[in-house]
Amino acid sequence: MPNRLYVDVHVLQTVPPSNINRDDNGTPKHALYGGVRRSRVSSQAWKRATRLAFTDSVPKQDLATRTKRISTLLANVLAAQSGLDQQQAARLSTALLAPLGIKPGKKADDTAYLLFFGRKQLDAIAGLVADQARELAGLSDAELKKHCDKLPIIETLNSGHPIDVALFGRMVADIKGLNVDAAVQVAHALSTHGVETEFDYYTAVDDENVEDSGAGMIGTIEFNSATLYRYATVSVHQLLENLAEPEATADAVRCFIDAFVRCMPSGYGNSFAPRTLPHLVLVAMREDQPVNLVSAYEKAVRGGANGIAEESARRLAAEFQTVNETWGTAPTAHFSTYYLGEGDEAKSLVDALGRPAALPQLLDGTHETVTAWLAAGVDA
After folding, report:
1. What is the C-alpha to C-alpha distance for residues 27 and 199, in angstroms, rounded to an integer?
2. 325 exposed, middle or buried (CB, 10 Å; 0-12, 13-18, 19+)?
3. 239 CB contacts (<8 Å, ≥6 apart)?
4. How do residues 287-304 score in pLDDT, each as one tens digit?
5. How many other C-beta atoms are found inside a 10 Å radius of the C-beta of residue 135?
6. Hey, what long-range contacts does 253-257 have (CB within 8 A, 24 or more apart)?
7. What is the DSSP string of 150-166?
8. Which NCBIfam families did the record assign (predicted)?
9. What is residue 378's predicted lDDT score, i.e. its pLDDT?
10. Which pLDDT does position 224 carry in this prediction?
C-alpha cells in the first residue's frame, strides 16, 4: 500500500457584495494573479471559520482552544476537580506548567504567545495530581517544583490531540517538544476573475434630533463581489500520525470537508449577509502529491451570457482532466457536488468530474475511501 494519501478539496463559491476579510485599512484583501487584480480571502480567515464550524458536529469539550490563558484555565479545572480555592489552584497550575518553559506574558498569568491545545488535555494534566492536589498545595515552592518536574506534562499535551490540533498543527518556536505537524494546508481563496473595489456610502440618523435634518453619522465600507476558487488538502497519513486511531482519522477528514465547504469568514456579516453555499465541490484522493488547480484561472474569466460561475466550473473541470491526462497521475477516487450547466456545459462537467452527488453522499464516499485506505495500511 502507498504510504501517502492526500485528500484535495476544490470549491467554487460565488459571494455577493461583501467584505468578509479585510486588511488593516478596511479594504477587502486582494492579490495580483495572471496580471489581474483578484479578490482574496486569506487562508487564516477560512481556517478559523472552519475551526468554529466544528462546534456544529463536535462537542466543545472535545475541541481545542487557542489562548494565552492556559494557566488560568488549568487553575479552573484544578479548582473544580479538587476543591482547591482559586489561589491554591493558581499556584498549583503555575507549578504544573513551569516545566514547559513557556515565556510569561506582560499580564499576570498570561503567556507571551497563544497556545493551541485540547480542553481534554488540560483535564488530563489536572488528572495527574487529582488524588494529591490538597497535599501538593501545602508543599513549599521548592518541594512543589521538585514534584511537578517529574510529571509527564509535555507527554500529556502531546497525546490525545483533538481534531483541530491534529488537522491544523501546533507551532511553539521555543518549545519544540510541543510542535505538531499540520495535516491540512489551505490556500488563499482567489476570485476566478478580475475584481474592483467599490464603496458603500452610508448615513445614520439621530432618531431624537428633530431639529436637524442632517445625518448623525456618515461613513463608507469598501466591498467587492466575487466567484472564489478555494482549495485545501488533507494529508491523511500525517493526520493518522497525529490522531493514532484510523477510525478517528477518517471521521476527522469527513468533519473537515463538511466544515470547510459550508463555513465562511464573518467579516461585516451583519452589513452584507453574504452567506452562500458553493456551487461546485470536488474532492480528489491522490497517492502521489496534492494538486492545486488554480492554474485554471491564470487567465481571468470574463463574464458572458452564462455568467462567471458557469465558466469557472467548466474551466475547473477542464483543468482537472488536463492535469490527470498530462501527468498520468489520475486520483485513486474522486467525488463531486455541483448543479451548474445545461446541455454541452453539463456534459463537459460530467465527463470530467463524474455525475454529481449530494454533499452527504460525497462525504460518505470520501469517508469510505479513506477508511479502506487506512484499513489496508493497518492490515499490511
Report:
1. 10
2. exposed
3. 166, 167, 183, 249, 252, 253
4. 999 999 999 999 999 987
5. 10
6. 253/7, 253/366, 253/367, 253/370, 254/363, 254/366, 254/367, 254/370, 255/54, 255/57, 255/58, 255/163, 256/50, 256/163, 256/167, 256/184, 256/232, 257/7, 257/9, 257/283, 257/362, 257/363, 257/366
7. TS-HHHHHTSS--HHHH
8. casC_Cse4
9. 58
10. 98
3-state secondary structure of 127: helix
pLDDT on residue 340: 60
Amino acid (1-letter code) at residue 19: N
d(CA 328, CA 358): 29
Q: Which residues contact 2 (CB under 8 A, 6 or more apart)?
A: 287
Using an 8 Å Cβ cutoff, are 269 and 16 in contact?
Answer: no
Give the integer Cα–Cα distance in Å for 262 and 184.
17
In the structure grid, which three cell numbers stand for residue 147, read together? 514534584
Nearest Cα neighbor of 313 from 196, 188, 192 is 192
Closest CA to 183 of 265, 238, 220, 225: 238
Q: Helical H runs in 83-175?
A: 86-97, 119-127, 133-137, 141-148, 153-157, 163-168
Q: Is the pLDDT assigned to residue 1 strictly greater than 60? A: no
The Cα 193–Cα 2 span in angstroms is 38
Tell me the pLDDT band of 2, cut-offs 50, 70 and 90: low
> pLDDT tens digit string along 267-284?
999 999 999 999 999 999
DSSP letters along 340-354, please? ---THHHHHHHHHH-
With bands split at pLDDT 50, 70 and 90, how would you rate the model's confidence at 109?
confident
Q: Which residues of 152-171 are buried (b: 16+ CB within 10 A; e: fewer)?
A: ebeebbbeebbbbbbbbbbe
Whole-number percent of the chain with pLDDT over 90: 82
